[in-house]
């Protein structure tokens, strides 16, 4: 044994009574040995390998099928052996084995691409002409609108992509770069107040829409809780004061001379200052006024809940149950999420009832809307929600709220903000629907279905009692670039407005740009892929693509309903109980929902499953997404397979 090393023996006991004794080697620079047989309980990937591959490739990957376990367990172990990298006491990976592993992977993708139907992804992107970009590290570190010191980047492409979506999402563009800092300054103060605070700001994501939703909720939390935003910098300098109300305390930085310090204020003092600056008598600020409450529907993506945990944002259900609020009107108890309609869109009437219960108690509202929900592809009507919610916000003084801060000269400054934030999770729909709407305007669509608005052009409406038409409805939008657009890597776009930008915590001298985005290093390839796609596809191309996908979804729904007619008449699958395929398709959705077929069909077409209890019974469902690669021939293959005996035998 080499110097500095020590061995420990660990015995792992199997359920069958056998035991495996392994040595754990620790020491200076020594890799550890496995604590159990590696790969013995790893899952197998459906369709990657077949049982006869174990024999066929045995001359390259010597392998003995474990005596116990299912055939899948054997495939999982063999899969591990084929793809494992060099481990302690092993030889390095041979070129023959490496090439076999790559060949098996290519075969796998070839089979999968031929039948891929179940997810919001274009599975056949075409970007091989950008292969030379893979021979360079491309990193868009820092703010998209500041070049910085790291020059192996394509921010010039990123800015073009952002301008493209700003126009499509009816934002005010270009971004007002007066908010950027002078290159020779490390201070956080603004160079100048923006000429147009409503101009957009955003960045291309390195993950999917989850990153955009996480950032949007962070953005909303800071805005609604009264934290200093970037726009306040020309007033507050380095001040990061967060006021304390009714003993509720958060830290601040200002002692009147521009240097870091502490400033504490009580509720009466704060109210007196706000009344002096506004000339309006206000009720005492409370901790509720700085506690955003999140509302999202039962059809929302799981990333919403994950983001709330990361950011410690409170949900209406948790707060209401913890504080024993009475059940809201029309509910026997507090729901865990805002109810969704049959088509998967948020029930705006229920949303309004739930929001008012918190608005009347002074809580600001963070509302996450879906524009293309994950399973049913539904589109929340953001405009209709605003019509119901704005009078509620008005009634409870949440349309406009006042905060004050101490600037670097020690003077009191007033900032006005809304008491709500509307975030749109447009992972699929924010890329697809603008072009379907363009197509509708150009009379390229057969149907005349209402297309709900969701973007930055949306404004409140004038009512009999109040004019809300000058109030901007949407605060932030996130979109996935690997879904309808078809980028080969997870990516997307996050966009808000300059006036809502988070105050960055620092300006790292290492990259010489403000740290305004979520990640430090950001994928430059993602921006290059999206720029390339839109440079090759005109608005006309995008409209034609949108119409094709819309018609394919309608065609698929029609074929499934025809199949369902046979089932209901007992002419097909007579033993199916109840005799229905539960076909569901909303007019604008690219998703068509139906009864879940057997495992073989699910795997062949890469379908996903969901269980619905809405109708007083458990319905096991799946869906098909009519993405760009879906053809009539592929749809007909699916219909043929669903027509065969045993197609819906879930025990098969």
From TrEMBL:
Cofactor: pyridoxal 5'-phosphate
Protein keywords: Decarboxylase, Lyase, Pyridoxal phosphate
N6-(pyridoxal phosphate)lysine modification, residue list: 483
Coiled-coil intervals: none
Region Disordered, residue ranges: 1-41
Annotated GO MF terms: carboxy-lyase activity
Family annotation (SUPFAM superfamilies): PLP-dependent transferases
InterPro entries (alphabetical): Group_II_Decarboxylase (IPR051151), PyrdxlP-dep_de-COase (IPR002129), PyrdxlP-dep_Trfase (IPR015424), PyrdxlP-dep_Trfase_major (IPR015421)
Keyword Lyase applies: yes
Entries under Gene3D superfamilies matching the protein: Type I PLP-dependent aspartate aminotransferase-like (Major domain)
Family: Belongs to the group II decarboxylase family.
Protein name (record): Histidine decarboxylase
Source organism: Riccia sorocarpa
């Amino acid at each position: 044994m080499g110097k500095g090393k020590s061995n420990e023996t660990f015995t792992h006991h199997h359920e069958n009574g056998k035991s495996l004794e392994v040595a754990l080697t620790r020491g200076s620079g020594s890799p550890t040995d496995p604590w159990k047989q590696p790969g013995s309980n790893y899952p197998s990937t459906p369709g990657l390998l077949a049982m006869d591959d174990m024999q066929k490739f045995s001359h390259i990957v010597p392998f003995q099928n474990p005596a116990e376990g299912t055939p899948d367990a054997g495939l999982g172990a063999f899969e591990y052996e084929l793809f494992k990298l060099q481990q302690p006491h092993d030889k390095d990976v041979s070129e023959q084995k490496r090439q076999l592993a790559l060949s098996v992977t290519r075969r796998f993708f070839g089979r999968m691409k031929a039948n891929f139907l179940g997810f919001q992804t274009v599975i056949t992107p075409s970007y091989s002409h950008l292969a030379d970009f893979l021979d360079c590290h491309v990193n868009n570190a820092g703010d998209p609108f500041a070049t910085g010191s790291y020059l192996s980047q394509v921010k010039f492409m990123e800015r073009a992509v952002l301008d493209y979506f700003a126009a499509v999402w009816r934002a005010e563009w270009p971004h007002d770069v007066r908010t950027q800092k002078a290159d020779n300054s490390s201070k956080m103060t603004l160079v100048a107040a923006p000429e147009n605070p409503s101009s957009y700001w955003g960045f291309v994501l390195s993950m999917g829409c989850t990153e955009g939703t996480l950032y949007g909720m962070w953005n909303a939390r800071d805005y609604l809780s009264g934290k200093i935003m970037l726009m306040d910098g020309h007033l507050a300098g380095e001040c990061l004061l967060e006021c304390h109300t009714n003993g509720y305390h958060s830290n601040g930085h200002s002692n009147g001379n521009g240097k870091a310090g502490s400033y504490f204020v009580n509720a009466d003092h704060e109210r007196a200052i706000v009344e002096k600056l506004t000339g309006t008598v206000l009720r005492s600020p409370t901790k509720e006024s700085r506690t955003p409450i999140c509302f999202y529907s039962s059809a929302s993506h799981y990333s919403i809940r994950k983001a709330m945990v990361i950011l410690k944002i409170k949900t209406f259900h948790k707060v209401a149950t913890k504080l024993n609020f009475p059940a809201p009107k029309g509910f026997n108890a507090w729901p865990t999420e805002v109810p969704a309609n049959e088509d998967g869109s948020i029930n705006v009437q229920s949303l309004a009832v739930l929001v008012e219960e918190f608005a009347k108690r002074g809580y600001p509202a963070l509302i996450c809307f879906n524009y293309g929900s994950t399973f049913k592809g539904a589109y929340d009507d953001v405009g209709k929600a605003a019509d119901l919610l704005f009078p509620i916000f008005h009634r409870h003084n949440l349309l406009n709220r006042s905060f004050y801060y101490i600037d670097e000269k020690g003077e009191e400054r007033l900032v006005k903000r809304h008491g709500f934030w509307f975030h749109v999770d447009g992972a699929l729909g924010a890329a697809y629907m603008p072009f379907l709407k363009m197509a509708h305007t150009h009379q390229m669509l057969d149907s005349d279905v209402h297309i709900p608005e969701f973007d930055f052009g949306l404004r409140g409406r004038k009512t009999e009692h109040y004019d809300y038409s000058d109030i901007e409805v949407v605060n932030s939008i996130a979109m996935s670039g690997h879904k309808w657009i078809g980028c080969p890597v997870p990516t997307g776009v996050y966009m808000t407005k300059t006036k809502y930008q988070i105050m960055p915590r620092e300006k790292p001298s290492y990259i010489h740009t403000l740290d305004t985005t979520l990640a430090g290093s950001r994928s430059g390839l993602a921006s290059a892929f999206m720029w390339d796609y839109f440079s090759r596809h005109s608005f006309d191309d995008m409209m034609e693509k949108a119409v094709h996908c819309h018609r394919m979804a309608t065609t698929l729904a029609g074929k499934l309903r025809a199949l369902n007619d046979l089932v209901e008449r007992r002419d097909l699958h007579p033993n199916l109980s109840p005799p229905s395929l539960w076909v569901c398709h909303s007019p604008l959705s690219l998703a068509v929902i139906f009864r879940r077929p057997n495992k073989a069909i699910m795997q062949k077409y890469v379908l996903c499953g969901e269980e619905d209890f809405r109708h007083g019974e458990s319905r096991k469902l799946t869906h098909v997404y009519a993405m760009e690669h879906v053809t009539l021939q592929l749809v007909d293959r699916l219909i043929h397979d669903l027509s065969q005996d045993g197609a819906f035998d879930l025990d098969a």
